[in-house]
Amino acid sequence: MRRTPQAVGGEKRKLRLFKTEEAKGKVVFRMFSSSILVGICLIWAYRLSNLPTAGDKGRWLWIGMFFAELGFGFYWILTQALRWNLVRYYPLKFNLSQSNSSYKLPGVDIFVCTADPTVEPPTLVINTVLSAMSLNHPTEKLSVYLSDDGGSQLTFYALLEASRFAKLWIPFCKKFNVEPRSPDAYFTHKFDLHEHTADAQQRLFIKEQYEDMIKRIEAVINKGSVPEELKNQHKGFSEWDSNVTKQNHQPIVQIITDGRDTNAVDSDGCRLPTLVYMAREKRPDCLHHFKAGAMNALIRVSSEISNSAIILNLDCDMYANNADSIKEALCFFMDEERGHQIAFVQHPQKYNNITKNDLYGNSCPVLHKVELPGIGGYGSALYCGTGCFHRRTSLCGTKYSEEHKGLWNSETRKDDNRTVHELEEASKVLASCGFEKGTQWGKEMGLICGCPVEDVVTGLAIQCRGWKSVYYNPDNTAFIGVAPPTLDIALVQFTRWSDGMFQIFLSKYCPFIYGYNTIKLGAQLGYCVYLLWAPSSLPLLYYAIALPFSLFRGIPLFPDIRSRWFIPFAYVFVSKNIYSLAEALIFGSTFKGWWNLQRMWVHRRTTSFFFAFIDCIVRQLGLSQTTFTVTAKVVTDDVSKMYQQEIMNFGSTSIMFTVISTLAMLNLFSLIGVVVKVFMGGLECKDMEKLVSQVVLCGLMVTVNGPVYEALFVRNDKGSMPGSVMFKSIVLASLACLIPLN
């Protein structure tokens, strides 16, 4: 028999649908963290108490070191907020199953966003759509919306093909409890397709149907347009004429599958979820606000068609892996005691193409298992733009109120008798580019516009309206995407993120101002760990230049290794890195994976974060405008092979590679110069003792940059450093070594 909540003292006991657990070892960590803080304070004291007098050689280098270490120290203090009060959330799915007799599961609208069919192939997009359509949730309460900012008839055609294949795929998934729910990801697994059991034969049949669909889609894509005989199969193609371009077209809304239609069924006779294609209106003279604008149009259009209480948004390359992800998310929203407080549930961004040692530091298990959950101790979470379940009301600008308790028993889906055509026409008005003018959309309603990271600033604004949020990292990953397979793409992505987040810090949405008295101090500090990525580049960039510069000239910037002042420097450096390594190993990384991540942090801070800092300052001065770059989701076979072999790809003339190689050469020249001086007798033993710290740090920089030197001088493949980059880096590093020091 099912157990039901028992009456206690005449009142029904509240049913718990999720639990919260504090991380173990808090006291030990806080003691360790405090000892690091003491060491940092001693370093600051050393810098101030040993400041060279005016006219001394290296005085300005010393002052620069003080400010760099001040920056390192304050940023480290911010990072401790993420570990100081770490909690983790766990849904109680079994309790939700028990409560079905007294609860009505809310409807769920799933938004999938794509922007360009050339860098986000339609075959990739429809795999995400199919995975979303097949999630375990009542199909009459499930609606999937595809926003196509490219306005491409190729994407529309692919979606039509997917809607037909869904009639086979959805019942297949439910029957065999398939995971992952993406056909492409599922069929890449190795199966014995020669087995003659009924199950194996059905799997083979579905695989053949999927491959046939992909061939048809790719044939149309290769032609560059949809043939007339295919266009005649659906009225939606009439929206495309010779005047339609990516940046100039009318609003297009097509309900491909109407979930209200009892005849819209799969191969088992079960109802299909609603499926909608939307390409919002775009005009050259209207701002479209990139992804934020697309999401806001989806919110409005979906409110006209399905109006589900819960919204899940996914990037087009982030397919559903965990079939029960909706059920797990609903546990947080429907909890009788705390569920009404929660605005969104964010899942981690994980990837299916991570190499064994995570070459470009994309997976970062510590980020997902410690840092992002760390803000949860203060009732907050970062909205990361994909894999996030939202309460519709909170996303539409509603402030938190206790009145939201118990609203799940009311049905939110519209009882609408309008025809499909009438719904489409009404929705087109909501997807027009002029609809938002004079309204609060993009300001107080929907996603906030005008920022490259509209997701983070929107999540912050929602929490400042009184809502709480949850970062949930399940053992069975909910959603899986594609990580950048080249260094160039990875750095460009981090440039956009860090630029947008620093822009938030400099705006009215700064957590210390906008979040004052609305979110906890720990959450404000936690947000700033990411919002200050861009300026965090300055201390490391200074170290990367000043240390080899001073070492080459024999100017000591650290205490003698026999001095007591050397102890805090050594303690902070060694203990922080040992802790970082231990943390990475505990949470599933490898030593080489940790080392690769350290290299990537050096590259990110000296390039992506620094350029983002410059771009953001220039924008604040009104000298440029916000731009948005769509990163490619597919690469050539050669690039993919190189990535899988964990060979770094430097085959681009990007200015970022010039900076990376110049800093690498500067540290190498400096280290070689010191070695030459030692062997030539140019450095006495007592002088060398004062330079040991700089030699060690420059040596580490040289070691970290091993793949850079290999790409410069050893490799001769497509991923090697271009000759022009090598020439510029050698010249710039040589000039830096020759700069006179007054």
How would you explain this protein's 3D organization?
By secondary structure, this protein is an alpha/beta fold. Helix content is 50%, strand content 9%. The chain has helices at 26-49, 59-84, 93-98, 122-133, 153-176, 183-187, 198-223, 228-231, 290-305, 325-334, 365-374, 392-395, 420-430, 454-464, 487-505, 511-514, 521-531, 537-552, 566-586, 591-620, 637-644, 655-680, 685-704, 706-714, 723-738; strands at 7-8, 11-12, 18-22, 87-91, 108-114, 142-148, 252-257, 274-279, 310-315, 319-320, 342-346, 350-351, 388-391, 468-471, 479-481. Helix 22 (655-680) crosses helix 25 (723-738). It is globular. The N and C termini lie far apart (86 Å).
Distance between the termini: 86 Å
Return the structural class.
alpha/beta
Number of strands: 15
> Which parts are unreliable, with pLDDT below 50 for 5 consecutive residues or more?
1-10
Q: Given the C-alpha coordinates, what overall shape results? A: globular
For the largest beta sheet, what order do the strands appear in spatially?
Answer: 7-8-6-5-9-13-11-14
Give the tags.
50% helix, three-stranded mixed beta sheet, eight-stranded mixed beta sheet, alpha/beta, 742 residues, transmembrane helix
Short description:
One of its GO terms (molecular function) is cellulose synthase (UDP-forming) activity. This protein has 742 residues and is α/β, with parallel strands linked by helices. The chain has helices at residues 26-49, 59-84, 93-98, 122-133, 153-176, 183-187, 198-223, 228-231, 290-305, 325-334, 365-374, 392-395, 420-430, 454-464, 487-505, 511-514, 521-531, 537-552, 566-586, 591-620, 637-644, 655-680, 685-704, 706-714, 723-738, and strands at residues 7-8, 11-12, 18-22, 87-91, 108-114, 142-148, 252-257, 274-279, 310-315, 319-320, 342-346, 350-351, 388-391, 468-471, 479-481.
